[in-house]
Specification:
This protein is of the alpha/beta class and about 450 residues long. The protein folds into 2 domains: about 5-215, Spore Coat Polysaccharide Biosynthesis Protein SpsA, Chain A; about 235-420, Hexapeptide repeat proteins (UDP N-Acetylglucosamine Acyltransferase, domain 1). The strands form 6 sheets. Strands 13, 14, 16, 17, 19, 20, 22, 23, 25, 26, 28, 30, 33 and 36 form a 14-stranded parallel β-sheet that branches. It has an 11-stranded parallel β-sheet with strand order 12-15-18-21-24-27-29-31-34-37-39, with helices on one face. Strands 5-4-1-6-10-7-11 form a 7-stranded mixed β-sheet. β8 and β9 form a beta hairpin. The mean pLDDT is about 95.
Length: about 450
């Protein structure tokens, strides 16, 4: 029999104090509600997401996951939300219902509840350290929302998790007859969880952490971060720390990859080499044997086998660092190729450029790629040597094996194996330095 699921994602979440709908807040590169959808799809569910606030944005965020959507006309409670999805549900069979703000829910817990489902309704419950705010599981009654609890019922610590399995026919029969509750006139889904409902009460509280504010969002991110990191570590990735390293869901890590303390990996990265402490890596490929050293930032780049980047380097989109090349501290590379064995070890800017195999770019060198209107390319040949503090005004080509003297500003091509030096002549006047200092002191009134 097919399995259906309904995810309640129509609310705004005012306690988040955010212009973004609560379920869209990102958690490790995925909107919060996407974690619940992924868990449901992992157990084979056909997922219907109920939407209202920022409906277009929610639809766009979840469209790649292949879910269906039901529109709730007004936020009139959980019962009304599920009723809005009835037309998309089968006439019979199990229907999982859960909230869209519990990103820690695991597929194994959903599967476990399904395996124990009997009758018209089965509800997951847990023993809360602090039951405040939860509906209580009252024996012989069902779920009693906190606002309706007696003083004695408020002492009950076994609470409703918000995860249910209903029979589809039962939902069709009962939902149209729910009665509104004061003061907002809401229809409560918990009214369908009566004394005959099956209750599985030993689930872990952590899985049902509802995200209602930014503090709970940070808490959920921390728990998921550790889960994700532990899974990667079990597959052969070396983590310096499971708590401070952040790996988004779109990142692919290869066995043997090494991640340093505080590293952040986002987007569509593929990492087989080493990412050092406190690096930020986005949409970047790091091949086996490559090392990205501490404090470096890589965005849309490629780092080849055996290459070394950093510490404190910046690779911008289009940076292609080939095997064995070196990009050192305070070097910025943008839309440029450094071929095998090329080196730019200190304080350089290489943009819109191609640096040949084995070439050396000295400290303080810049490729002057922008004329105020257009970008232009710099080509440095294989084995060339660019002296420190040189400015290469593009478009320009430095030939294979050429040498550019330190401090040169070049505006014309340099042939292969040539030496180019551009410097103003030095004016040297001996035994005059102290006389000049005395002149300055007198002018400043400090004779």
């Amino acid at each position: 029999m097919s399995l259906s699921a309904v995810v309640l994602a129509a609310g705004l979440g005012t306690r988040m104090r955010s212009p973004l709908a609560k379920v869209l807040h990102p958690v490790l590169g995925r909107p919060m509600v996407g974690w619940i959808v992924e868990a449901l799809q992992a157990v084979g569910a056909d997922v219907v997401v109920v939407v209202h606030h920022q409906e277009d944005q929610v639809r766009a965020a979840l469209a790649p996951l292949g879910v269906r959507f039901a529109h709730q006309e007004a936020p009139r409670g959980t019962g009304d939300a599920v009723a809005s999805a009835l037309s998309l549900l089968p006439n019979a069979g199990p229907v999982v219902v859960t909230a869209g703000d519990t990103p820690l829910l695991c597929a194994r817990s959903i599967q476990r509840l399904l395996a124990t489902h009997v009758g018209s309704c089965t509800v997951a419950a847990f023993c809360a350290a602090d039951p405040t705010g939860y509906g209580r599981m009252v024996p012989g009654v069902g779920v009693v929302e906190e606002a309706a609890c007696t003083v004695e019922q408020r002492t009950i610590r076994v609470v409703n998790s918000g995860l249910y399995v209903f029979d589809a026919a039962y939902l069709r029969q009962r939902l149209p007859h729910l009665q509104p509750h004061a003061p907002k006139g809401e229809l409560w889904l918990t009214d369908l969880v009566g004394p005959d409902a099956a209750v599985v009460a030993d689930f872990a509280e952590e899985e049902f952490l509802g995200v209602n504010d930014r503090a709970q969002l940070a808490q959920a991110r921390g728990i998921l971060r550790r889960r994700v990191n532990r899974a990667w570590a079990s597959s052969g990735v070396d983590f310096a720390d499971l708590d401070t390293i952040s790996v988004d869901v779109g990142v692919q890590l290869e066995p043997g990859a090494v991640l340093g303390l505080g590293a952040v990996l986002t987007g569509a990265c593929r990492v087989a080499g080493e990412v050092g402490p406190h690096c930020v890596v986005h949409d970047t490929v790091i091949e086996p044997g490559a090392r990205v050293l501490a404090g470096s930032v890589c965005d849309g780049a490629s780092v080849g086998a055996g290459a070394v980047v950093g510490p404190l380097a910046r690779l911008r989109p289009g940076a292609d660092i080939r095997a064995g090349a070196h990009v050192g501290n305070f070097v910025e590379v943008k839309k440029a190729v450094l071929h095998e064995g090329a080196k730019a070890n200190h304080l350089a800017y290489i943009g819109d450029a191609e640096v040949g195999a084995g070439a050396n770019v000295g400290a303080g060198t810049i490729t002057c790629n922008y004329d105020g209107v257009s970008k232009h390319k710099t080509t440095i040949g294989a084995g060339a040597f660019i002296g420190s503090n040189s400015a290469l005004v593009a478009p320009i080509r430095i030939g294979d094996g050429a040498i550019v003297g330190a401090g040169s500003t070049l505006t014309q091509d340099v042939p292969a194996d040539a030496i180019a030096v551009e410097r103003a002549p030095v004016k040297l006047t001996e035994a005059t330095a102290e006389r000049l200092r005395a002149h300055y002191r007198k002018r400043a009134g400090r004779s």
